[in-house]
Amino acid sequence: MRSQKGDKTFLLIITLIGILLLPFAIVKRSFKDWIIVYLVSVLGNSLADHYLVTRGYLKYKIRPMPKIFSIHLPFDLVHYPLALLYYNQWTLNSNLKGILLKLFPFIIPQIIFETMAAKKTNLIHWRRGWSWYHSFFAMAGKFLICRSIIAIIRIINNKAVTTRDL
């Protein structure tokens, strides 16, 4: 078992790396689309995380502002949105098969990391029967739901009436 100080240092380092990578994922063409992806992912993952924590499936012993938030802010505000941004950019022009197959390079490393963290650190604790496959299907579902929301927004945006049309 690693020390709590080591766990905090590790979490700080990967969070800082994520924060440094975030602007590169957002500042691209379709800036508005990527901001929407970021906000949808933050909102969706925070709500899902809050639900799982309050129901007792997940517990985070090490987290920023533990008296205020029960969720894991670095994951909900940085790591997950960053992965989702890159996934959405990679699947922007993909068909359904491509969208599904491109999930794996994003989800599998996350599940491996989460499984190792649950077994060897105090960063996350799985409870009440939660396991890696629950995380796998939950993350795949969240990725696909967010990807669908963005696709719907793009469809609506392309059909939108502009001031030139009036």
Description:
The chain has 166 residues and is mostly helical. It has six helices and two strands; from the N terminus they run H-H-E-H-H-H-E-H. Helices cover 69% and strands 2% of the residues. It has a two-stranded antiparallel ribbon. The relative contact order is 0.14. The protein has helices spanning 4-26, 31-54, 73-90, 96-101, 104-120, 132-158, and strands at 58-59, 125-126. The model has no long low-confidence stretch (mean pLDDT 81). The protein is globular and about 50 Å long.
Summarize the structure.
With 166 residues, this protein is an all-alpha fold. It has six helices and two strands; from the N terminus they run H-H-E-H-H-H-E-H.
How much helix is in the residues? 55-70%
- For the termini, the CA-CA separation is 65 Å
Number of helices: 6
Round the Cα radius of gyration to an integer and report it. Answer: 17 Å
- For the residues shown, what is the average pLDDT? 81
* Uncertain ranges: none
Largest sheet: 2 strands, antiparallel
The overall strand count is 2
**Multimeric organization:** single chain
Query: What pattern of helices and strands is seen along the backbone?
Result: HHEHHHEH
Tell me the structural class.
mainly alpha
Tell the overall outline: globular
Report the β-strand fraction as a percent range.
Answer: under 5%
Strand order of the largest sheet: 1-2
Element layout with pairings:
Blueprint: H1 4-26, H2 31-54, E1 58-59, H3 73-90, H4 96-101, H5 104-120, E2 125-126, H6 132-158
Antiparallel strand pairs: 1-2
Helix pairs in contact: 1-3, 2-3, 2-6, 5-6
